[in-house]
Amino acid sequence: MASARRSKLDPVAPRDVPTVVVSRLSLYLRELQRLVLEDRATVSSSQLGKALGFTDAQVRKDLAYFGHFGHPGVGYRCEELIGAIRRILGTDRQWTVTMVGVGNLGRALLRYKGFASKGFRIVAAFDADPHVAGVKIEGIPVYSQQRLVDVVRQLRIQLGMITVPASQAQQVADQLVSAGIEGIVNFAPVTLSLPAEVGLVGVDLTTELEQLAFAVANRIGTR
Amino acid sequence: MASARRSKLDPVAPRDVPTVVVSRLSLYLRELQRLVLEDRATVSSSQLGKALGFTDAQVRKDLAYFGHFGHPGVGYRCEELIGAIRRILGTDRQWTVTMVGVGNLGRALLRYKGFASKGFRIVAAFDADPHVAGVKIEGIPVYSQQRLVDVVRQLRIQLGMITVPASQAQQVADQLVSAGIEGIVNFAPVTLSLPAEVGLVGVDLTTELEQLAFAVANRIGTR
DNA sequence: TACTGTGAAACGGTTCACAGCC
DNA sequence: GGCTGTGAACCGTTTCACAGTA
After folding, report:
1. Is the CB of A142 under 7 A from strand C?
2. To the nearest 5 percent, what fractions of chain A are helix, strand and coil?
3. Cα→Cα distances A181→A155, A178, A222, B14, Å
4. Residue A1 lies in a domain
5. Residue A220 — very low, low, confident or very high, per pLDDT cuts 50/70/90?
6. I need a surface site. Which of A6, A195, B77, B152 has the fewest CB within 10 A?
């Protein structure tokens, strides 16, 4: 545990938070936002846990890594905790994002409304196909991939999503890195190698189906 | 460790495999298939590990949960190990899959060629919008959502992918369960509650971006 | 009473280090 | 020499249980 005193108003991530904790933070946030839509003002750790399949102790310990957000006898105030988690995740700010690869998946993600409301603003897209360059999709300009490094640097784009075929993904990643990108979500079914200071999250849809197949084939609960 | 002797030819998942191990299995498989394309015949645990960012011991221990696939002094034969992992994951068979929700994401996934080659055959799709019902997308018939339970039961569909808005996801999941589905991949940003005997994997694209934002905002390696 | 925050215990996964094998 | 398979040590995460607070 971190020894530094942290103010209640300034929740900052200590260096030694287990990474699983961060992924649960996203789920807490999602559920809290749902509760607010139902006009719930507070929620206890056991209620929050039950909704997501975790224990109450786990919820409390996860949140306690970042500060003292709870109110004994009351629980957590939803709006307050939403604000705290968003600050912790860094989604209280706006992020500029680019999408490389405007095939089926890229197009679908460009049209997805969910990103903008969470602070992720897609400001440019790229594709190797010259026929696609020049058009706009959902108001987002699509550039030729040759202009990637220039445009990303110019617009100071921070995050990149890669939806090109596997064979091109590493090359695209290298270009993004040389353009100064800070993090990448990779949808291509390959493992990328990147400098350690660039964040990387991989999402492989086939892999997810395989996990499900295993669970079903072995009649094992995935929860 | 399981005490039962397992034959080399019959790799079967024991009951007590850590779930993280299964997710790494998918990555091993992906990398092995890449190696085969490059005409590599064998690979050692340290080579496989290095390519994916794991230690050699971890690779060996993961695989040893399921059988004796390695050859001392040689390593693992790629084709042989591919076959073994596919049997373990259950992707040596064909799975019938349905997609509920034919919006942007659903459409993109229907068009994605990667599933079929991995044994996942999408045989039907559903949408609440009556305008969409009746058409075919990539040869896959789209039905009205009212016919979901009937059609899923009729075609003995095993797995379902949910790409409807969050507010409808639980209801769709309940319908799939009552139609006898065995597992669900949920792309809607809600936590579903399902009977324990139905497999569940959740994929939330916003959540993935949030993980990346956290890593970048806190300058923490995600690897 | 109702609930949080947190040390301490329990658990589970990873790494080490080496015997055994080709 | 090169490499696997695996007990044992290690380390990180989860659960327990309870002191503290509104």
Report:
1. no
2. 45, 15, 40
3. 11, 7, 35, 43
4. no
5. confident
6. A195
User: Chain D: nucleotides under 7 Å from a protein CB?
Assistant: 1-7, 12-17, 20-22
- Which residues in chain B touch residue A216, judged by CB atoms under 8 angstroms apart? 90, 158-159, 182-183, 199
B3, B13, B26, B95, B216 from A185: Cα distances, Å: 41, 31, 18, 28, 12
Count Cβ–Cβ pairs < 8 Å, chain A vs chain B.
211
Q: What's the Å distance between residue B57 CA and nucleotide C18 C1'?
A: 13
Which amino acid does the sequence have at B39?
D
B41: domain range?
Answer: 14-88
User: Which of residues A64, A88, A112 is at a domain's end?
Assistant: A88
Domain of A108: which CATH number? 3.40.50.720
pTM tops 0.85: yes
Assigned token pair, B123: 């045989």
Tens-place pLDDT, residues A163-199: 999 999 999 999 999 999 999 999 999 999 999 999 9
For chain B, the domain total comes to: 2
Cβ of B14 near strand C (distance < 7 A): no
One domain, residues B34 and B69: yes
Q: Are residues A42 and A67 in the same domain?
A: yes
Do both B80 and B166 map to the same domain? no
Q: Is the CB of A53 inside 8 Å of chain B's CB atoms?
A: yes
